[in-house]
Each structure stands twice: as C-alpha cells, then as structure tokens.
Design brief:
binds 5-amino-5-deoxy-1-O-phosphono-D-mannitol; 604 residues; Glutamine Phosphoribosylpyrophosphate, subunit 1, domain 1; Rossmann fold; 19 helices; eight-stranded antiparallel β-sheet; globular; seven-stranded antiparallel β-sheet; alpha/beta; 25 strands
C-alpha cells in the first residue's frame, strides 16, 4: 500500500524524502513523487515505476538551506499508475499526499466541480487539496481550512498537506492508515508511514492515533485528538537498528506478518464492500458475461487459497469451478474453453509455472484474471484483469498474510459473482458482507492464545508425522497448515480430508502420529468429530482446534464462538500459523528463510 514521508529542516530535503520512500518500498508501489517548498517556490517531481525513475527525474534538483517536503509511493486504487495520478497532488498553491481511500470523494468532487474546480487526476486524493483550498478562501487561517476539510472526509486516510500560505508548516491528519511523526535534537521534524525511514534520523517519535490531526513547524509539533481537543504528543524512543525496526519488535518477519493480518485485511477490503454488494472498481462487469465455468490455477499456498475458494464459488455463485496445480496443468494438454474464466492466484505474480499457465489461457483466448500481491508483476501485466490483494511486502518465505488476503479477495469475488449471476438473495450477500467486516478483529492475535500455543508446541517436536485434517474449506486449510509446518520445521506433515483417513492413512495411527484436527462448529462438526474419534480410538495423539470442547483430544486449542464458518476458517488459520512458527522456533530453525526455499520461484 502507499507510503508517505515528510520533512522539515535544512539537511538535503530531496535525499531525506527519496531515501525515506526507499525504506517504504516494501509496502509496494507503482509510482512515486515528492514536493519541496522553499520560501514560496515548489519543486515537484513524479515518476511511474521504480524510485530510480524518480531519482533520475530529480537528478538536477539540489535544494540548499531550509525547506519543507512531502513524498509518496502510490499503489494504485483509484485510477491507473500514471504520472498524473501519482502524488503529491496540486491545488492552486498547495500539495497533498494521502494513503487510504476517501470513500465520499465522488460527492466532494461533484461539489467542487460545480464550483468551477478542474481536476487533473482520476484519484480520490485530489479532492483533499481542492477542498482545502475552497475552505481557505473563507477560513481565517490555513489550519482552520484544514480542519474544515478534514471534517468532510469519509474513509481511511493518512494525509500530509503543504501550502505556500504557511511555507514552514506541514498539516497532517490520520484515520485508519498509519502515520508517525518524529523529531531530533537538531530541530528537524519527520513524517513516515512506518518506523524504518526514521531510524538514524529521528530520536523520538509519536505513533499517531486514529482521529489525530494537527500541524508541525520547525518549532513544535501541535497535536489535536479525534474530538478536536489539544493533545500532548506521546513520544517514544526509536530503536537504533534498522533490521529490528523493520521487524517492529517481533522476533521474525513471519511473526510480524501474522500479527499484521488484521491491518492488511482491512486494507484488502477498503472501498470494496458496500452494504449489499461487493464492488471491485478494477473489474469490468463484462468480465462475468458469458462465463459458464471458472478454472483456478496456482502453486503452493496460493493453490490452497484456490482450492478453498472453489467451495465458495460453487456454493455462492453456483458455477462449476475446477482447481489446478500450475506445474501439472502445463503438461496435461488441458481442455481450455473460451467460456471459462481462467483465474491465477499468486503472491509474487512471478511464479514460473503459474505464469506459463496464464500464457496458455491467453493463447486459448480465455478471459483471464490474476489475484496478486505485486502490481506491475509479470502476471498483472499479462492478464486481462487483476485484483491486488494489498498485503504489503511479505518477507517471510512462509506465506501468511498473503494467504489471508487472497482468501478475503476470493470470498469477496465469490459474492460478486453470485450477485452477477443472481444466485444469492441480496440479504444473504449483505449478511456475508457483515461477516467479512469482522475479519480484521477475527484474526487479531490474542496474547493468551499465543502463549498457549508457545507452551503446547514443545509436545510436537518429534513423532513420525503430522496429519492435519478437516472437511470442506477446512480441508484446504489443513493442507495449508501442513505446508506451513513442513516449510519451517522440516517435520513431515500431510493435509488430508477428514473423511478420507479411513481409506488408508489411519493405518499409521499410533501415539507418535500427531493429528491436528480442524473442528469448526459451523461446518460438518459431527462428521469431522466421528473421523477424529476413529483416530483417537487408534491412539493417535490429537490436538483439536475448535470452539466446542472435545473430550477425546489430548490437546485443545480453543477459538471463539463464531457465527460463520469462514470466520472460524480465518481464526484457525492464525492458530496454524502460530503453531508451525513456535515448533520451528523450538527446533532452532531459520523461521524467515527456511532451507532450500525461495520466496519467489521463477524457475520451473
Ligand atoms: O508467489 P506465489 O504465490 O505464486 O508462490 C507460490 C508458492 O511458491 C508459495 O505459495 C509457497 O508455497 C510459499 N512458500 C508458501 O508458504
């Protein structure tokens, strides 16, 4: 997602801004820009693509002395990645950068257009600067105009705004998107979307809370809380090492990524959920026209997301859905028919096998869609349409938050399909949307739960194997749980449909066979329970994950009592991620970079 930086001081503004943006690259972006204000003169540079392009454009710009500046890396949501859509956005004499989505931008834009304002970009962001300038005409001061403008915004935002009327001041507001303000003993002030750009520059930072707004000058940081009351900035000291800062206090990137799933899921759904329908701005409604079948194709964790979603597509949209492992599809001389929508799922957008199947689908003149975490990746460029998962850069080789966001997108897409095909009542869709909105809270890691899993993990360091079992969507989740454990603990684990155990694998059951049983209350509980009892009767060691106590389990990990099985799915997903991580930690393995694996598999 987008990244923001800001600076007030005299130490080479351009480098501070661009190097800050470099530190935010991990959030993902497709264009970037900076605006520097010295006296009443603005210097503005924007470029599509990598920061190198921005650096080249601004090569001859060498600001000296005091100035203020704002910078931004943009991950396109409203409007394509072009220079015009890149931030900062200009009014008459002010520039703004923004992270998030202004949900009522169309209404504000109509109002401003009626007043004669012209817009240059297709972004939601541009309304902010024009609205500010509209209020500036009547408000007594730029800050008053900023306050009035902020009061009109709906949605999520982190905003920095600079204006020639106050050339030593940066105005800021935060609601739902991250923003930090920092200072050092030299009087310099900084803004950033996360800690990492500030390490080595600022000694103290304030982590702004939702609703906070105010302004910063060379002399002071002036803060107001969400109710508009003056607030004292609460400073924290920044860690000194960049690596530990990027991990934000977590032991591993994987742990950090598990913990940030609530935040990224909120980003994934931002602007895509209406009361009664799911809306993907990036999809042409024609994509659904004439489609009689869906074929999903992916590798590894993304394949598990595909498999889980096939249950949702058939259940919600009543459309025939098949799922393929990309390396298999490539050589099986498949039947690829033009009335089938070919959907590839990939965190990186570069996995060689998946990319190749996408080329095959294009050659067969199928409609193609990619669900991907990296904009401008090979798959995004090739497919007819793309939906970005907005998980931010995932550094741990073992995928966690990327899977969570893929599942959220696929769940949403199944509802969009259902609506287009008329297979679900509006009320039923609205009900699922209500559950989707619960996802960020549902995946939040509870300290007590993490502690319990940490303690339990010591009993699962040996044995002759693990079976993760479940039914329906919990079968692909079982596959994913087993893959996570394999990847980082190097223990043998298999995912299996619960009902299949008695057709062979149950022969392995003994106390040294560990069964991790996914027992959701809302999906085939009694059926799964019988299968687990069969294993328990043969002395397999059972670790049950459920919201219902299960007396035959040797170990029990409770989840919350949920109303919908997909919420149980997401909560169990977090449990499985934590369990595999804690086992790997106890075995002394490299959690983030397990042996023999690469984050992006670009070879066949
Ligand atoms: O980037 P992709 O989603 O296409 O990658 C596919 C697999 O290589 C990937 O999911 C892999 O299985 C992960 N290491 C799983 O944690």
């Amino acid at each position: 997602m987008c990244g923001i930086v800001g600076y007030i001081g005299s130490n080479n503004i351009k480098d501070v801004l661009i190097e800050g943006l470099q530190e935010l690259e991990y959030r993902g972006y497709d264009s970037a820009g900076i605006a520097v204000l010295q006296n009443t003169d603005f210097a503005v540079y924007k470029a599509v693509g990598k920061l190198e392009n921005l650096r080249n454009k601004a090569a001859s710009f060498a600001p000296e002395g005091f100035g203020i500046g704002i910078g931004h890396t943009r991950w396109a949501t409203h409007g394509k990645p072009t220079e015009l859509n890149a931030h900062p956005h200009l009014g008459q004499s002010s520039y703004v950068v923004h992270n998030g989505i202004i949900e009522n931008y169309q209404e504000l834009k109509n109002e401003l257009v009626a007043q004669g304002v012209s817009f240059l970009s297709q972004t939601d962001t541009e309304v902010i600067v024009h609205l500010f300038e509209a209020y500036l005409k009547t408000a007594g001061s730029p800050f008053e105009a900023f306050k009035q403008m902020r009061a009109r915004l709906e949605g999520a935002y982190a905003i920095l705004l600079v204006t020639t009327s106050e050339p030593e001041t940066i105005y800021f507001a935060k609601h739902g998107s991250p923003m930090i303000v920092g200072r050092n003993r030299g009087g310099e002030k900084f803004f950033a979307s996360s800690d990492s750009p500030l390490i080595g520059l600022a000694q103290e930072v304030v982590y702004l809370k939702d609703g906070d707004f105010g302004y910063v000058t060379p002399a002071a940081i002036t803060l107001y809380d969400g109710s508009g009351n003056p607030a004292a900035p609460l400073f924290s000291t920044l860690p000194e090492s960049k690596l530990s800062a990027q991990k934000e206090g977590f032991r591993f990137f994987m742990e950090k990524e598990i913990y940030e799933q609530g935040e990224v899921l909120a980003d994934t759904m931002l602007g895509r959920l209406k009361e009664q329908e799911v809306y993907f701005e990036e999809l042409d409604p024609q994509l659904f026209a004439g489609v009689n079948e869906i074929k999903l194709c992916a590798c590894g964790t993304s394949y598990h997301a595909a498999l889980a979603s096939s249950y949702l597509f058939e259940r919600h949209a009543r459309i025939r859905t098949s799922v393929e492992i990309a390396s298999e599809l490539r050589y099986k001389e498949p039947l690829l028919s033009p009335d089938t929508l070919f959907v590839v799922i990939s965190q990186s957008g570069e996995t060689a096998d998946t990319l190749e199947t996408l080329k095959m689908a294009k050659a067969a003149e199928m409609k193609t869609l990619v669900i991907c975490n990296v904009d401008n990746s090979s798959m995004v460029r090739l497919a007819d349409a793309s939906i970005l998962t907005r998980a931010g850069i995932e550094k741990g080789v073992a995928s966690t938050k990327a899977f969570a966001t893929q599942m959220a997108v696929l769940w949403m897409l199944s509802l969009a399909f259902a609506k287009a095909r008329g297979t679900m009542e509006t009320g039923a869709i609205a009900e699922q949307i209500r559950h989707l909105r619960e996802l960020p809270a549902c995946v939040r890691v509870d300290d007590a739960l993490h502690e319990r899993i940490k303690r339990l993990s010591k009993r699962y360091l040996h044995g002759h194997g693990f079976f993760f079992i479940g039914r329906d969507v919990f079968y692909p989740l079982a596959l994913e749980g087993a893959l996570k454990l394999k990847e980082i603990s190097y223990l043998h684990a298999e995912g299996y449909p619960s009902g299949e155990m008695k057709h062979g694998p149950i022969a392995l059951a003994d106390p040294e066979l560990f069964t991790i049983a996914l027992m959701p209350k809302n999906m085939l509980y009694d059926k799964t329970k019988s299968n687990v009892e069969e294993l328990s009767a043969r002395d397999s060691t059972i670790c049950a994950i459920s919201d219902k106590p299960f007396e035959k389990a040797d170990d029990f990990i409770p989840i919350h009592d949920r109303e919908h099985y997909m919420l149980e799915f997401f909560e169990m997903m977090v449990v499985l991620q934590l369990l595999s991580m804690e086992v790997a930690v106890r075995l002394g393995n490299d959690v983030d970079m397990p042996r023999n694996l690469a984050k992006s598999v670009t070879v066949e």
